[in-house]
Amino acid sequence: MRGKGNAVATRELRSDAAANRDRIVEAARAELSKSNGTADELKLHVVAKAAGVGQGTLYRHFPTREHLLAAAYRDELTELVDAVAPLLARHAPLDALTRWLRRLVEYARVKRGVMAAIEASAWRDLYSDQHHRLDEALGALLDQGKAAGEVRDEVDVTDVILLLGVLSRIPESDWERRVPTIIAVIIDGLRRK
Is 57 exposed, middle or buried (0-12, 13-18, 19+ CB in 10 A)? Predict the structure, then answer.
């Protein structure tokens, strides 16, 4: 009997640990949203308190600020990737692509500070398996658009990413005015004539 009880306690602990981790990441995401993505302003003791855990629990899951930022990034990236199928189910492919690009661009805007806060080595170690997911999501949108005759056949993921690169040059003060126009120009360029 005793062995069974220990196994159950271990499972409960693992479930509780997973719940703690999820609360910590969610609290970090909420704090990052409050600071408009400024990672330097992310106070780990504030995150721990908001998650209802001690700082020791936070550090057991995330030994550095970069590890916590990486987890928040992965969760938000998953939301972006997971948004593709519902958008395609509700909208024509080019409209779905437009809506998804707006989400992606807004995400990139808010996360400028997060990305800048992560050192190159940490970026390689913590994010190396993530970027292909965005490429795959964008590829699915483009493929659906091509199949529907809405997107030019010669366009690929790299073309769109290169076009989106111009957004990094927009000053925050011009963001609201310029981004909708730039997205519209990109979509017009992707449209099959």
Answer: middle
CATH code, domain carrying 132: 1.10.357.10
Structural domain span for residue 57: 1-63
Question: Which of these, 189, 169, 187, lies nearest to 178 by C-alpha position?
Answer: 169
Let me know whether 118 and 33 are in one domain.
no
The pTM of the full predicted model, rounded to 2 decimals, is 0.74
Residues with Cβ within 8 Å of residue 143, at least 6 apart in sequence: none
Bigger pLDDT: 77 vs 151: 151
List pLDDT tens digits, range 69-115. Answer: 888 888 888 888 999 999 999 999 999 999 999 988 877 766 655 54
Say whether both 58 and 71 belong to one domain: no
Long-range contacts of 31-35 (CB under 8 A, 24+ apart): 32/72, 32/110, 32/111, 32/114, 33/110, 35/113
